[in-house]
User: What shape does this take?
Amino acid sequence: MSVVPLLALAFNSQWPIYPAGLVIFGFFNGWIITLLNSFGTQVGGHRSRFIFNMLYLTNNLGVVLGTMVAGSLYQLAGSQVSPLFIITITMYCAYLGVIIGAFPRRDVHTVTGKTTASRAQLLPRANQTVIGTLFLTIALVWVAYTQWSSNLAVFMTGHGLSMGQYSLLDHQRGPCYHLPSNY
Assistant: This one.
């Protein structure tokens, strides 16, 4: 599903398609990260802490390397973003191939039996407030992080920094924020 907004952005990256496509892509990308973590639970031979630290490290290494390369590719593409979206689509398809090849399908066994009907219980008002506040905070942090990784590049290049120079700058910033905890 993440490929659909990327396809739209590859062929039309104008207003209002661009911001709407990025929001939809971000939503589906969150699903992909959740699925990646669930596949990580099926890896044997290592402690789960090691597996999840490696997932975190490789994910953030990809962010750092992708940012480093994207600026140069953007300049090579004549300041067009469409080739970057096509490269991203290609990488998502390759990722899907790895998942299909490395994690064979398993039969799901369902348990049948009597089920008892339960009444839905509403959360207490205080709990609803805490959950709502948490959700709003996460959304605001996500928007701030997205602004950092997208609009800051436009701001910096508007002040004379080339896209390649900005990519190198962001590459240098990356390791400071993306170090994993103990294995």
